[in-house]
Amino acid sequence: MKLKIFADKKYLLNQPNVRPNPMLLPFWADFAETGYYSWMKNYDRYSNIANTLFEMVSLEEADIAVMPDDWRTVVGELWYANQNKLADSLYRQFAEKVAQANKKLVVFFGGDRSDEPVNLPNKDMLVFRYSYYRSQQKENNFVWPVFCEDLVEHYLANQLSIRQKSAKPVVGFCGLVKPSNWKTNLKKLSYYGYMLSRYRRLGYPPIQGHILREKVIKNFKKSNLVTTNFLVRESMVFLGQKNLVDMAKLRVEFIDNMINSDYIVCCRGAGNYSNRLFETLCLGRIPIFIDTDCVLPYNFTIDWKKYCVWIEEKEIDRIAEKVAEFHQNLSEEDFVNLQHECRRFWKEWLSAEGFYSNFNLHLP
C-alpha cells in the first residue's frame, strides 16, 4: 500500500542551492538534479519507483507531512553561514499547519550535527539525522543513510568486483586524517570554548573524529597481521576542490582504493557517522566499522554486525588482531558470499530506493 504524503513548495526557501528533500524530488520535477557526473544521479532509481511507494495528496488525506527542505538550512549547516531567519519562519509555518491538522510531521536533518534541537510545535514528529549518539537518542529520532550513486553501475560497468580470500586481509582507507598535535589540540580547545559560551556544554570536537582515524591507521600500520592500502588526504575529497574534473579524479582514486582492498576502515569524521560505510557496502566490500556510540539506519530491525567487522572504540588498540581473526574465521566461500551480501544489503536498505522502500517501518 502506498504511503500518502503531503508537502508544499510554497514553504520551500527560495534561495540558490536550496532543493527539496530527496524524498520529494520525484514529485517536483522542476527541482530534479541533472548532470554528467555520477554523484548527480544518486536518486535516479528512486525517482523511477517513487510513485509506487508514495502518493502526494492534500494535508487532510495524508498519512504524514514531509518538511520540504533540510532542517540544516535553519541551523546554518555547511553552506549556510548563519541561522536563516526566513527559513525558520517558513518551516515553522509549515509545522504549525501540520500540527493544526493533527498530522505526523517528518523532518530530515542532513548535516553533521547530532544534537542540534529541532524546536517545532509538533508533538507527533519523526526526526531523521545522519547521526545520533546512541546514549542520547530520543524516541522517534532515527538515522537515514548518506545516499551515494551506484558505484558499481557508474564506475565498474555494472559488474561487481569480487575478491578472493588471501592469507592476510587487505585493509583499505582513503580519506582525511589529522595528527594529534598542538595545532589540532588548539582547534579542540577553541571548539570547547565555543560550545561552553553558546550552549554551556563541551560536546565532541569535529576534528576529534579525524584524529581518531589516525589512531586506527597507526595501529594497523604497526601490525604484521594485515596488509594495508592507505591513501591519506589532507583535506576532504569533495570540499575545497577547484572544479568538477578534480572532484571526479579524486572520486575514481577513492573507489580504486576500495576495489583493491578486502576491508575498508569506516570511522567517523566531523559528525558521528561515516559516508564511507555506505559506499563500502555499495561496492560489496566489508566495512571495519568503528563504533563511537553510533546509531545506524534501520538498526531496530537489521543486525548490522552481520555485515561488518565491528570494533568498539575502546578496542582500537587491538584492531588489527580483531580484523585478522574475523578474516581467518571466514572460509573462502564465506568471504565471497559476504561481499555479495554487503552489496545486496546496500541495494535493498541503504540506497535511496532501498531506504524509501522500507520507510514505512519507521511508522507505528
UniProtKB/TrEMBL annotation:
This chain's protein is named Exostosin family protein
Alphabetical list of InterPro entries matching this protein: Exostosin (IPR004263), Exostosin_GT47 (IPR040911)
Exostosin GT47 domain location, by residue?
Answer: 244-319
Taken from the record, one Pfam family name reads Exostosin_GT47
